[in-house]
Amino acid sequence: MIQNKYKILLIEDENNIRNLVATVLETAGYQTIPADSCSMAKTLFVSHIPDLIILDLGLPDSDGMNFLDYVRKDSLTPIIVLSARTNESDKIIALDRGANDYITKPFASGELLARVRAALRNNRFCSTEGRLPNGKFTLKELEIDYNARQVFIRGEEIHLTQTEYNIVSLLSENCGKMMTYSAIIKAIWGGYAQEGSVKKLQVNMANIRKKFGDKPGEANYIANELGVGYRLNE
Length: 234
Ligand code: CA
Known about the structure:
Number of helices: 8
Strand order of the largest sheet: 2-1-3-4-5
Helix content: 40-55%
Order of helices and strands: EHEHEHEHEHEEEEHEHHEE
Shape: globular
Bound molecules: calcium ion
Radius of gyration: 18 Å
Number of strands: 12
């Protein structure tokens, strides 16, 4: 049987980690294209046109951020940054420069696969002229009707304020992508993230999550990475 496998360009210079990630991905049915440097990644990106990129930031010949910029110049291929860095600002810089998500080493294989599925799903939505098919969005029991500006969970309407709706709508259009505080603030209110605007966002997000029935420590619709941003989960 011929399978139309997703191609994943996997850029990581540490052999152990690259082999481990490749095994996890291939076991799950993905095809991997391994690269161990920035220059090799550029060549393989052009020749293979991958569906997804997993990118280590610390590469021997160049910073992974340079490859990120290189891809984003003219491509929306989803990028998941794989990083040993625990520094929050590196993650935020990578996200604001166009990465879809990041995962911090060491990570569980289940977590990696969930991020990969979410990023590929996000890319499929974006390919339909930036809008989701028939003006609707569904994710498990969550449904959004963009024309009516209504949100439902299990068929029950969730009553949101205009600002809350705008935030939910934005996250849904970027489903699976980690949105930084500054990216959300810029899209919703314009301007830049300051202490006051981050507070305002956090208050709105707390209200949305309460209305959604999200509970701390459970698998919820909206994930919060403290100090970084929010992601609508698959
Ligand atoms: Ca490295």
